[in-house]
Amino acid sequence: MEDDAPVIYGLEFQARALTPQTAETDAIRFLVGTQSLKYDNQIHIIDFDDENNIINKNVLLHQVGEIWHISASPADRGVLATCYNRTSDSKVLTCAAVWRMPKELESGSHESPDDSSSTAQTLELLCHLDNTAHGNMACVVWEPMGDGKKIISLADNHILLWDLQESSSQAVLASSASLEGKGQLKFTSGRWSPHHNCTQVATANDTTLRGWDTRSMSQIYCIENAHGQLVRDLDFNPNKQYYLASCGDDCKVKFWDTRNVTEPVKTLEEHSHWVWNVRYNHSHDQLVLTGSSDSRVILSNMVSISSEPFGHLVDDDDISDQEDHRSEEKSKEPLQDNVIATYEEHEDSVYAVDWSSADPWLFASLSYDGRLVINRVPRALKYHILL
Amino acid sequence: MAAAAAAGPSPGSGPGDSPEGPEGEAPERRRKAHGMLYYGLSEGEAAGRPAGPDPLDPTDLNGAHFDPEVYLDKLRRECPLAQLMDSETDMVRQIRALDSDMQTLVYENYNKFISATGVHALLRKLQFLFELPSRLTKCVELGAYGQAVRYQGRAQAVLQQYQHLPSFRAIQDDCQVITARLAQQLRQRFREGGSGAPEQAECVELLLALGEPAEELCEEFLAHARGRLEKELRSLEAELGPSPPAPDVLEFTDRGGSGFVGGLCQVAAAYQELFAAQGPAGAEKLAAFARELGSRYFALVERRLAQEQGGGDNSLLVRALDRFHRRLRAPGALLAAAGLADAATEIVERVARERLGHHLQGLRAAFLGCLTDVRQALAAPRVAGKEGPGLAELLANVASSILSHIKASLAAVHLFTAKEVSFSNKPYFRGEFCSQGVREGLIVGFIRSMCQTAQSFCDSPGEKGGATPPALLLLLSRLCLDYETATISYILTLTDEQFLVQDQFPVTPVSTLCAEARETARRLLTHYVKVQGLVISQMLRKSVETRDWLSTLEPRNVRAVMKRVVEDTTAIDVQVGLLYEEGVRKAQSSDSSKRTFSVYSSSRQQGRYAPSYTPSAPMDTNLLSNIQKLFSERIDVFSPVEFNKVSVLTGIIKISLKTLLECVRLRTFGRFGLQQVQVDCHFLQLYLWRFVADEELVHLLLDEVVASAALRCPDPVPMEPSVVEVICERG
């Protein structure tokens, strides 16, 4: 079976926003937001049928504007947040809102894709994140593993922590902090650390990475000139606290130990243009995914700086007799970092990549031309990691 | 006088008849008397009593007090002539008889004579023995120790043999006392050591002859030699001085050579001569001695040599090392066991290695110096109308400066292998020095370090600020490329010719080094492209990001930033053209320069390229196909460049236009915003195509920019192509 073959899905519009349905841990499901200035924008709910290698989609209308960023609640499958452009009176403002999708779509209805366009449903607005005083929303991030009540949004030079109340129908600004300095400071991206009881957030602005304590909303570290040019994205290692990855316009991916901000732990330079997205695999943090405007997706094996530098360590409980000798055979030398695969299915800039929240061996990438590609980690590597 | 007178017969006087006159017994008595006289005894003494006439009569021919004058006077006065004549005849006859008697007597007593001489000798010996104590004393007093020792040596055996005889015993005792004093004095003199080694050797020789214990003397001899040599070492050390001016290194090794090494040679030679009987144990003692002092000498020499770190000229140093090494080869033969010659060779080798390292450092410093000069020349403010030194000139300066430094270094280290230098025939200098030291360590090492230094400019963190002037990157890239094409093989050939490499060590092949240089050149040029691309990208990005594209006015001009981009690109083109060849372009269509905005809308409809965009509803699909076309050829934006101008410019323009594309996609455009992008892109199209290898690339990217802007425009009404052309021609 051609299990490793990519599955491609095309959207009618340009698209930049992609997220897995975070709260869903059984079905493989991604949400994609479109960008169109002339037509109603959409959120495509992409269901991937792993067994049959088929994609099923449902389309939700997102009529308020083109979607620049999308994120899903970690607690409620039906809740998501978008950042979208609203154009009025020759002014463009990027706003953010929390939405709920129709109940029947939460777990993916398997209607025939053909009638989906006719039956396009609308999102239910839960609340706006009022940014009138703060400027354009760059992104919204949910507290990881939380109850879906806390979100942080980045608006120009402000970092805003919101409490969602009354079944998320109300967003209350809990606290905020601002970047001060000369020039027009603007956050480009942010991630919420799953470590330290989820009290840390990292942000990127221009070439700088910053860490924030969400309790005091104060800066805890700062990596100046993390990249030679603009930092586009960052991600936390899910298994190794203090470790984070960043990427940017210098075509590089850098890995940092936030306790030592002077030098990156590791640098990758595999892309030939700006790197827009970097994502750690949620379970096997040696697997790092990057997407770039050179229209390539690269899967790297950063095993030497992963939480499993000597390969998979079998838990004592799991060891059966057969596994015993296998674990002995394993070399205890740190393994070599390498590029596992370069995926070339895209023909335009890839602005988003992410792992499935349900299947750790599967990921999706989205290019500007609306092409969504679902790929798997090569089987040989998967077995190598597992065994 | 008396004998002559007696023998010579005087005329007129014959031998007077002796008063006693008895002819018969006279010869016998005379013989006796003669014999006694021979033994130095007077006749009276021998006879025991006076005989015959008055023995004191001076006229008695046979008397002891005979006086020929008195006798002749008497004859002349008393005798008449005839008697005188007779006397004369008689005298002659008597003399003849006496002569024959004497002969007979000698013949008859020959054996007795002989044995009497033996006794005489014996007596003389005895006399010597008896006189020995006093003679010895005298000799000792006079300081004629050699004489004294010789006397003692002569007498010792006899005295030993006859020591049972009391008289001899006494002599022996006396002699022993004196000899002991002599030995003491010799030792004293030996200890005082004021005299030079030869005298000391003499002392030892004498003491040995006196039968002093050799081992002890050996120790003492060496101890004294040590004292002297240590003094030499101390004076050498003083010359090292905590504070210069010390004598130059040649003088130093000269002094060390003549003072210490010379002294050591003397000691060794004397020792071997004096204590040859000591056998291997003695030789080992000497070797240990030489080793110990030698190592201290070496330590001093090395300290002095260590002060010779500076400077690029080796001639004095090599001469000094030559002296040093040559000097130690002499005792090397004598002191083979001490291994001083080997140790000296090792020191020379070590110095040679250090010099190689020093020259490598020197070359590196020279290279860095060149880079600093280039930086300064590049940073120097340009006087309007007057160009500073061009890049090509700077490159030529750097290349020739480095080459002359390399040649100077080669010449300097070549001194170590000169035929007249004593150590140049050592295996190290014939083999390893040439191949591993000079060729690999110095030349290959330098070229590698040069490449590394150059490459380090690619890794500099200051990507944003661009701490390294782009022109420097370009220049270094060309330098490395020139090294790859010619310079490396030239330098290595030069090296191989000068240093005939004879050993089997593997050396870096020219091709490997060339490949490294080429890779360095490629990385530098790629980095140059990135840096220059970034400069232009930043301009374009700012121009897109900071503008309010929704409320912009209808375009009347090309934006200044686009003119700036074209100007900068032209400047880069000129800069690259100074160092790199043109390169090849794809065949151009005849109307390249005339291509206008119509390219975007109409002329591209034929051929395999789909029309770029039309402002109608199906635009998205057009765009899609357009994008597919673009990326089916997959433009690697940051891709390795080739070593020519066109490739470099293509890279820079690709980066810049891709940035423009990505930035446009992040903005939203009003109708006039889109039109401005149209105008700007057309302007870029007019001027940029000529720089790139494949002008189609510029078209594609600019198409893509305009298409993306149209996509990002809620109200996409494009400007009339003719209007766009007019605006662009107006400039």
UniProtKB/TrEMBL annotation, chain A:
<feature type="repeat" description="WD">
    <location>
        <begin position="224"/>
        <end position="260"/>
    </location>
</feature>
<dbReference type="InterPro" id="IPR001680">
    <property type="entry name" value="WD40_rpt"/>
</dbReference>
<protein>
    <recommendedName>
        <fullName>EARP and GARP complex-interacting protein 1</fullName>
    </recommendedName>
</protein>
<dbReference type="GO" id="GO:0005794">
    <property type="term" value="C:Golgi apparatus"/>
</dbReference>
<feature type="compositionally biased region" description="Basic and acidic residues">
    <location>
        <begin position="322"/>
        <end position="335"/>
    </location>
</feature>
<dbReference type="InterPro" id="IPR059104">
    <property type="entry name" value="Beta-prop_EIPR1-like"/>
</dbReference>
<dbReference type="GO" id="GO:0051049">
    <property type="term" value="P:regulation of transport"/>
</dbReference>
<feature type="region of interest" description="Disordered">
    <location>
        <begin position="310"/>
        <end position="336"/>
    </location>
</feature>
<dbReference type="InterPro" id="IPR015943">
    <property type="entry name" value="WD40/YVTN_repeat-like_dom_sf"/>
</dbReference>
<dbReference type="Pfam" id="PF23609">
    <property type="entry name" value="Beta-prop_EIPR1"/>
</dbReference>
<comment type="function">
    <text>Acts as a component of endosomal retrieval machinery that is involved in protein transport from early endosomes to either recycling endosomes or the trans-Golgi network. Mediates the recruitment of Golgi-associated retrograde protein (GARP) complex to the trans-Golgi network and controls early endosome-to-Golgi transport of internalized protein. Promotes the recycling of internalized transferrin receptor (TFRC) to the plasma membrane through interaction with endosome-associated recycling protein (EARP) complex.</text>
</comment>
<feature type="domain" description="EIPR1-like beta-propeller">
    <location>
        <begin position="7"/>
        <end position="299"/>
    </location>
</feature>
<dbReference type="GO" id="GO:0060341">
    <property type="term" value="P:regulation of cellular localization"/>
</dbReference>
<comment type="subunit">
    <text>Interacts with two multisubunit tethering complexes: EARP composed of VPS50, VPS51, VPS52 and VPS53 subunits and GARP complex composed of VPS51, VPS52, VPS53 and VPS54 subunits. Interacts with SNAP29.</text>
</comment>
<keyword id="KW-0853">WD repeat</keyword>
<dbReference type="Pfam" id="PF00400">
    <property type="entry name" value="WD40"/>
</dbReference>
<keyword id="KW-0677">Repeat</keyword>
<dbReference type="InterPro" id="IPR040323">
    <property type="entry name" value="EIPR1"/>
</dbReference>
<dbReference type="GO" id="GO:0016567">
    <property type="term" value="P:protein ubiquitination"/>
</dbReference>
<comment type="similarity">
    <text>Belongs to the WD repeat EIPR1 family.</text>
</comment>
<dbReference type="InterPro" id="IPR019775">
    <property type="entry name" value="WD40_repeat_CS"/>
</dbReference>
TrEMBL record, chain B:
<keyword id="KW-0813">Transport</keyword>
<dbReference type="GO" id="GO:0007041">
    <property type="term" value="P:lysosomal transport"/>
</dbReference>
<dbReference type="GO" id="GO:0016020">
    <property type="term" value="C:membrane"/>
</dbReference>
<feature type="compositionally biased region" description="Low complexity">
    <location>
        <begin position="1"/>
        <end position="19"/>
    </location>
</feature>
<protein>
    <recommendedName>
        <fullName>Vacuolar protein sorting-associated protein 51 homolog</fullName>
    </recommendedName>
</protein>
<dbReference type="GO" id="GO:0007030">
    <property type="term" value="P:Golgi organization"/>
</dbReference>
<dbReference type="GO" id="GO:0006869">
    <property type="term" value="P:lipid transport"/>
</dbReference>
<keyword id="KW-0445">Lipid transport</keyword>
<comment type="subunit">
    <text>Component of the Golgi-associated retrograde protein (GARP) complex. Component of the endosome-associated retrograde protein (EARP) complex.</text>
</comment>
<dbReference type="GO" id="GO:0015031">
    <property type="term" value="P:protein transport"/>
</dbReference>
<keyword id="KW-0333">Golgi apparatus</keyword>
<dbReference type="GO" id="GO:0048193">
    <property type="term" value="P:Golgi vesicle transport"/>
</dbReference>
<keyword id="KW-0175">Coiled coil</keyword>
<keyword id="KW-0653">Protein transport</keyword>
<dbReference type="GO" id="GO:0032456">
    <property type="term" value="P:endocytic recycling"/>
</dbReference>
<comment type="similarity">
    <text>Belongs to the VPS51 family.</text>
</comment>
<dbReference type="InterPro" id="IPR039481">
    <property type="entry name" value="EXOC2/Sec5_N_dom"/>
</dbReference>
<dbReference type="GO" id="GO:1990745">
    <property type="term" value="C:EARP complex"/>
</dbReference>
<dbReference type="GO" id="GO:0042147">
    <property type="term" value="P:retrograde transport, endosome to Golgi"/>
</dbReference>
<dbReference type="GO" id="GO:0005829">
    <property type="term" value="C:cytosol"/>
</dbReference>
<dbReference type="Pfam" id="PF15469">
    <property type="entry name" value="Sec5"/>
</dbReference>
<comment type="function">
    <text>Involved in retrograde transport from early and late endosomes to the late Golgi. The GARP complex is required for the maintenance of protein retrieval from endosomes to the TGN, acid hydrolase sorting, lysosome function, endosomal cholesterol traffic and autophagy. Acts as component of the EARP complex that is involved in endocytic recycling.</text>
</comment>
